[in-house]
Amino acid sequence: MIDLDTISTQPPSNISKNEGKKGLVQLRKELFELQNKFYADGRFGLLIILQGMDTSGKDGTIRHSLSSMNPQGVQVKSFKKPTEEELKHDFLWRVYPHIPPKGMIQVFNRSYYEDLLMPMVANSLSEEVLAHRCKLIKYLEQHLRLSNIHVLKFFLHISKEEQKERIQERLSKPHKRWKYSIADEKAAKQWDAYRAAYNMAITNCDDPSWYIIPADKRWYRNYSVANILTDHLKKHNLKYPNT
Amino acid sequence: MIDLDTISTQPPSNISKNEGKKGLVQLRKELFELQNKFYADGRFGLLIILQGMDTSGKDGTIRHSLSSMNPQGVQVKSFKKPTEEELKHDFLWRVYPHIPPKGMIQVFNRSYYEDLLMPMVANSLSEEVLAHRCKLIKYLEQHLRLSNIHVLKFFLHISKEEQKERIQERLSKPHKRWKYSIADEKAAKQWDAYRAAYNMAITNCDDPSWYIIPADKRWYRNYSVANILTDHLKKHNLKYPNT
């Protein structure tokens, strides 16, 4: 069982802020080229899942690490609180139209994992249903891999103290204030329950494994996500057709 | 392991053609009322899956057994050979938008089971992928039940001789000729391979169990499907809200 409390939220000591910032500039250039090749190659699809506590930096990661690529081949879908129509459906219904085809990169800002985490925190579903959701998600992700749709899962890992600071920051800085909502404060109060839910989800839905990104420092978070994505794309020997 | 060869394709002896035809008229009236209540009740959704060899009568079943209900609450989706766009996606992608919400009845004329049966017959996917698809389908159907979307699966069971006659009929009768296609003859040649694939799918994806409908006689097939559907809807103590 993974215990997030034992994993550092700080950058490793072998990289400086300056190196991370320069590295990101370079990685963004590489990603621009790699994504083009990925699209042309057309053998694989890629689903990137961003999860993390409130204020952990999902939006910032998309803006800084995933925005250098051609938007024709990259789509972002944010999953908010389900609408009334969505609640009449099973939880995968609103997700499935956004599962990418081969050639495309799809980013999920939050995902079907919320349908596991939220009911755990709210205690609104039986153990049986939660256990089944967990297994279904495992099967789904394996199914995608078998269909040549790869899944990269990132957990943006911040400390409780950092979250507190970021909520304060949203209140005090005019250009961040619009992001503040009462829900943020409520989520902060439920820190322990969310933490337990994430420990469970990360432990049990581990194929593919999660990348746990130390995210207290934004520069490292951005660098790290871009770095892992670049590595992933390079691994597959992508080719332009007929070359 | 189910062996379809050991199961009769003929009506049971305790019902005559006349009783079956009269029974269907009555059942269609009941279904008209029950579906309205089902829609108003809104606690459950229903997915009806029709599978069977070519010429087994899927279209006819929809026309005779499932057409007395309000089309506002009943939808039919036919799954044909996947398009080029659909083939870029995993096999569930084209299915999922048609998974019904609560209150609705959705009929699948063929279904995701084709993505298990066809590759088995064509020998186009590895054992590993086929076994995984089989398990994923099991999990998916359980997931739907846990989400209050019930699944009723009908296998329309005809004999090889009956199929041969029906293909001949399509060729000889002007009003049936449009339904004939070369694919029918090819499918007839692959009878044994399809039979083995169905034995596997029906045995392994058995939660909920399949209804194996003796379908050599159209009157019995229509009566039987309508009868099972009526029973299913009655079981759930459907209510108009606030009554």
UniProtKB/TrEMBL annotation, chains A, B:
Gene3D superfamilies: P-loop containing nucleotide triphosphate hydrolases. Residues 15-238 form the Polyphosphate kinase-2-related domain. The keyword Transmembrane helix does not apply. Keywords: Kinase, Transferase. GO terms for biological process: polyphosphate metabolic process. GO terms for molecular function: polyphosphate kinase activity. InterPro entries: P-loop_NTPase, Polyphosphate_phosphotransfera, PPK2-rel_1, PPK2-related. Pfam families: PPK2. Belongs to the polyphosphate kinase 2 (PPK2) family. Class I subfamily. PANTHER family: POLYPHOSPHATE:AMP PHOSPHOTRANSFERASE (PTHR34383:SF3), POLYPHOSPHATE:AMP PHOSPHOTRANSFERASE-RELATED (PTHR34383). This is Polyphosphate kinase.
